[in-house]
Every structure is written in C-alpha cells, then in structure tokens.
Specification:
The chain is of the alpha/beta class. It has a single domain (about 10-205), classed as LmbE-like (Rossmann fold), CATH 3.40.50.10320. It has helices spanning about 25-40, 55-65, 90-100, 120-130, 160-170, 185-195, and strands at about 10-20, 40-50, 75-80, 105-110, 135-140, 155, 205.
Length: about 210
C-alpha cells in the first residue's frame, strides 16, 4: 500500500468518491479543505455515482466551491439510480475503470466498507478493487442505519474548515433543507465526537485498512 506524501515535496493527486451527491462533503469535506490549503495539489477528481437532474446541479455547485482555486480539477457526476448501484454493478465497474485510465491518485477517499447502505458498500469495494496499490481512506457518514464503527485514522480539523464545509452544504443542497437531519447540529456531531476521541475539538475519522508509511 502506497503511503501518503507527508513531505509535501510534490503535488498530490486526489480522488474523492461518493455514491450520492453530498457524501464526500459529509464524510471528508473538512479534511479535503484542509489538504487543499496545506499541500501542493496536482489533480483532483471528484466523482459521484447516483444523482438526478436537481441533485446533479447541487452537487456540481458544491464541488466547485470545494475545488475553487484548484486548476486541475474534474467533477464527474453520473446519473445512476439511487439505491440501485449493486444492481448496475457492471456499468459502475466500467465507470471506475474509466476514471483509472491515466490517473494515479496519491490518496483515494471512499466509503466505509461496513457501511450498511448498499450503494456505499459497492463504491468502497470497487475502490479497493481498482486502486489496490494506492492509499485508501474510508470515510463515515452519520445516518439512520446506525452503523458507526471504530475508525483508526483521525484528522484534526480546525473550526474554520468545519464552518466552511457546513456553509457549502447548506448553500448548495437546498433540496435537502427540509429533511429532519440536515442542519449544523448533525453536521457538527460526528466531527465533535471524533475530535473528543483524538484529543482535539473537531476531527474527521477514517478507516485505513492497509497503510504503509
């Protein structure tokens, strides 16, 4: 497993994968904003698999705000049916292979393998299948399923990144505002808990199943 280039002596190539339109922001948004501020960035690919026309517009707006100032950024938003990714696995696998062509990420952000949502699990499994020689960090998302695990990689996140992430979520995903969970209290809950576990205020946590430094 390739390790992360902590020396910051070359631009980082980053791949962020999300089954749904706000997954990356919720799971790794603070970490990505921090990386973008503190490392040289080569290419960033931001890929979503399930969307509809409205959600696609929102996800594009959100990704553009996250990727502002990054010259080599590509936003790819597919229109597979939400909740049906495992039943479209051949097509989704082909989409993964297309991303892989000519692109070697230094770090891949993807879903937690033991996430109970079927779309999330498929994206995680295909990430490991496609980039087995690259550093993969699996992020977590708070949701109804109650499937939180015990992460082993923690990234302390300054409050300014949490606030910026939250504002982008609120501004971009207007269709989600009526949902009972879509508010700053939920956005802050898991980073605050993971911050407490890592002796800081806020943190995002990941599952690093194979890491060589």
């Amino acid at each position: 497993m390739l390790g992360f280039n902590f020396a910051n002596d070359k631009p980082l190539n980053i791949l962020a994968l999300g089954a749904h339109c706000d997954d990356i922001e919720l799971g790794a948004g603070g970490t990505l904003l921090k990386i973008f501020d503190n490392y040289q960035i080569g290419t960033v690919k931001w890929v979503i698999f399930a969307s509809n026309e409205l959600r696609k517009k929102e996800a594009t707006a959100s990704a553009k705000m996250f990727l502002e100032g990054i010259p080599n950024a590509e936003i790819i938003i597919h229109s597979y049916r939400d909740g049906f990714l495992p039943y479209l696995a051949t097509e989704v696998k082909e989409a993964f292979e297309a991303i892989k062509q000519g692109f070697v990420p230094d770090v891949v952000f993807t879903h937690y393998r033991n996430d109970r949502h079927q779309d999330h699990r498929l994206v995680s499994d295909l990430a490991w299948n496609t980039w087995r020689n690259n550093l993969i960090l699996e992020y977590e998302i708070p949701k109804y399923d109650g499937d939180m695990g015990i992460p082993n990689v923690f990234v302390p996140i300054e409050g300014k990144y949490i606030e910026r992430r939250n504002k982008i979520l609120w501004d971009a995903f207007q269709s989600q505002r009526e949902k009972h969970w879509f508010d700053n209290e939920t956005f802050n809950a898991l980073p605050r808990l993971r911050g407490m576990e890592s002796a800081t205020t806020y943190a995002e946590a990941f599952y690093g199943r194979k890491i060589i430094l």
